[in-house]
């Protein structure tokens, strides 16, 4: 099966960015850890990161009809982007929303996700494990 792993704005700075909240591993290390999970050895994973909303939409659109699902950590776009929500609603594959931190226990503006109800599940507060859990949810579909 073929899955997208999408990271949104500021996640390129993982490891250096607010490490008490997001941990000390870099995005490359997190992606390598995901790629090496034995549960996923038979799957093809496509990793993508962008700080630009439109690039994330283009990534979702261009994989229409090509993947079996996506996990997305939308970063702060979860709280602000109706365009991202519409793109997720538009594509023909299931999407799981992942956040490293527990957005429900942080600032008020983070508690609201505009994409949650167009995603099949939201996983937050589990660190990098959240991506693996999300991919396992997709594999069961
Ligand atoms: C985040 C949570 C968001 O609120 C924040 O803007 C991020 C990272 C997370 O992974 O916990 O950039 O998505």
Question: Key features?
Answer:
single chain, alpha/beta, Rossmann fold, 5-stranded parallel beta sheet, about 140 residues, globular
Please explain how this structure is put together.
By secondary structure, this protein is of the alpha/beta class. It has one domain: Dehydroquinase, class II (Rossmann fold), CATH 3.40.50.9100. Helix content is 36%, strand content 18%. It has helices at residues 19-22, 27-35, 53-62, 77-80, 82-90, 108-111, 129-139, and strands at 2-7, 44-49, 69-73, 95-99, 121-124. It has a five-stranded parallel beta sheet with strand order 2-1-3-4-5, with helices on one face. α3 runs parallel beside α5 (82-90). The N and C termini lie close together (11 Å). The structure holds 1,3,4-trihydroxy-5-OXO-cyclohexanecarboxylic acid (DQA). Residues 10, 73, 75-76, 99-101, 103, 110 line the site of 1,3,4-trihydroxy-5-OXO-cyclohexanecarboxylic acid (DQA).
Classify the secondary structure makeup into a structural class: alpha/beta
Bound molecules: 1,3,4-trihydroxy-5-OXO-cyclohexanecarboxylic acid
Overall average pLDDT: 98
In what range is the share of β-strand residues? 15-25%
* Main sheet: strand order: 2-1-3-4-5
Radius of gyration: 14 Å
Characterize the main sheet: 5 strands, parallel
Q: In total, how many beta strands?
A: 5
CATH topology annotation: Rossmann fold
- Distance between termini? 11 Å
Count of structural domains = 1
Brief account:
The protein is α/β, with parallel strands linked by helices.
Write the layout of secondary structure elements.
Blueprint: E1 2-7, H1 19-22, H2 27-35, E2 44-49, H3 53-62, E3 69-73, H4 77-80, H5 82-90, E4 95-99, H6 108-111, E5 121-124, H7 129-139
Parallel strand pairs: 1-2, 1-3, 3-4, 4-5
1,3,4-trihydroxy-5-OXO-cyclohexanecarboxylic acid (DQA) is lined by residues 10, 73, 75-76, 99-101, 103, 110.
């Amino acid at each position: 099966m073929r899955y997208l792993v999408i990271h949104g704005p500021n996640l390129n700075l993982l490891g250096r960015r607010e490490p008490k909240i997001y941990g000390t591993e870099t995005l490359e290390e997190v992606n390598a850890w995901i790629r090496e999970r034995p549960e996923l050895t038979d799957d093809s994973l496509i990793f993508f990161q962008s700080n630009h909303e439109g690039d994330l939409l283009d990534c979702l659109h261009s994989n229409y009809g090509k993947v079996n699902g996506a996990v997305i950590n939308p970063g702060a776009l979860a709280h602000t982007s109706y365009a991202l929500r519409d793109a997720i609603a538009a594509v023909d594959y299931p999407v799981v929303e992942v956040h490293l931190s527990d957005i429900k226990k942080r600032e008020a503006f983070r508690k609201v996700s505009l994409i949650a109800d167009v995603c099949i599940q939201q996983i937050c507060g589990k660190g990098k494990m959240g991506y693996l859990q999300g991919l396992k949810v997709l594999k069961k579909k």
